[in-house]
Amino acid sequence: MNCQSARDLLVSVLYDDGASTEEKKTFYHHLKACEDCRGEYFEMMGTRVSLQQWPDLDALDDRRGIPAEVASRPSWWRVLPTIWAARPALAQLAWLLVLGVLAVFVALNTEFRLGGDGLIVRSGLRSATDLDDTRVADLVSYMVAESERRQSRAYAQALIKLQENVQVQRQYDFLEVGKTQTELEKRYLDGLEENNRMLKQIAQKVYR
Amino acid sequence: MGQTGGEVVEQDDQVLIVRVLRGDTESYNLLAQRWKKRIFNFVYRYTGNYEDSEDLTQETFTKAFRNLARLDDPRRFHSWLYKIALNECRMEHRRNRNHRHVFLDDQPQDGDGEVAPLQLRDPADSPEAVASKRETMEKLKQVFDLIPSEQRVVIVMKEYEDLKFHEIAEILEIPLSTVKSRLYKGLQTLKKMLES
After folding, report:
1. Where are the alpha helices (DSSP H) in chain B?
2. What is the DSSP letter of B109?
3. Alpha-carbon torsion A171, A173, A178, A179, what sign?
């Protein structure tokens, strides 16, 4: 194997993707003999190690990153116009059905009466089933408890996040202080050295 | 011989896709949950912008949901998803052609504008190690923004998403040999930039 063939194979071997056992064997055999290719292979490995220093992150806001709101939309609503366009007969049938249901609904909820006051027409929805007071009170207390639980949880999460931030910041502050101290010490020693040098020069001039 | 993790995931994806196509939208949520982190990180490393990445990830899943019925082979769902994500990134890039990312201002923030903790810390890490990790990561982000996008995307797909060369070739619609040569050149460029 020559160097060009080895470089053609390099990434396949580096990522163990696509190189046969025989090719790998020939490649490693070439690396043993060729210093240039060996150097390049290990440098590439080093670059891969550096790349791994970039960790995966989490998307912060699950509500935004996830298509929950997409999936919560009724899918039939989006496909309905397509179906209508493809099958107009079906669309007509659906319209007739809707109109029929409406007509039945109106008929059931309309009252015609011919009396002394003339013709009376009344319409309206029937009232929904009434909830008794105990049931309403139970529901309200449940909702209040649930709301309090969510708030406590959100507060605890925010507190944990804050503590983490403070911890990280503190570590960086320590580092910065350490760096500054080292820098100051270095400057002080440099200054001292410079002063000594100048004193020596002056002394030499004086005694000369 | 047991199934590999990838095969299991692939089979589960297929089951979920079939359910979604039958009208079970909740299954799409599960599918999206499964792939959200991968797609988000792919987009983030490709664009280098955290806020944009969240929007682009959401847009990717929205488009995937709308076009799921057009997916010919459910086994290729993840390649198809990466392709949509890449198209979204490219469209975003065209929209903001003159936009340059400023990484120092690009810390992830939560809704209240607070800087969120980066996932860099291992409890065993010393402050020096944490600082070193952060420094390397910042440098990586900067050099990623400087290398050509066609090399960057191959590096991200191979190094971080662990896609096979043939999958990358399929997503980018380029020959296998081009994928490998772009990766090789990209790694060389990165190496030089990281050294400088």
Report:
1. 5-21, 25-47, 50-67, 77-95, 127-146, 149-155, 165-172, 176-195
2. B
3. positive
Residue B119 in 3-state DSSP?
coil
Of A10, A18, A48, nearest to B159 by CB-CB distance is A48
Nearest to A54 by CA among B70, B165, B24, B143: B143
**CA-based R_g, chain B, Å:** 18
Question: Chain B contacts of A66, Cβ < 8 Å?
Answer: 29, 32-33, 36, 58, 61
Rounded to an integer, what distance in angstroms lies between the CA atom of residue B15 and that of residue B34?
A: 13
Which two three-digit tokens encode residue A187? Answer: 């400057």
Per-residue pLDDT tens digits for B137-172: 888 888 888 999 999 999 999 999 999 999 999 999
Q: Which candidate from B37, B128, B194 shows the least CB-CB separation from A56?
A: B37
Tokens coding B39: 């797609």
- A126 contacts A109 by C-beta, under 8 angstroms: yes
What are the angstrom distances between the C-alpha of A68 and each of A65, A116, B116, B149?
9, 60, 23, 31
Interface confidence (ipTM) of the complex: 0.76
Taking the alpha carbons at both ends of chain B, their separation in whole angstroms is: 48
The rounded distance, in Å, linking the Cα atoms of B180 and B161 is 15
pLDDT in tens, B27-60: 888 888 889 999 999 999 998 888 888 889 989 9
Is pLDDT larger for residue A113 or for residue B66? Answer: B66
* Over residues B77-98, mean pLDDT: 88
Shortest Cα distance, chain A CAs vs residue B143, angstroms: 11
Q: How far apart are CA A60 and CA B116, in angstroms?
A: 8
B113 close to A (CB below 8 A) = no
Q: Which of B82, B48, B81, B44 is nearest to B65 (CA)?
A: B81
Which pTM was predicted? 0.57
Cβ atoms < 10 Å from Cβ of B31: 25
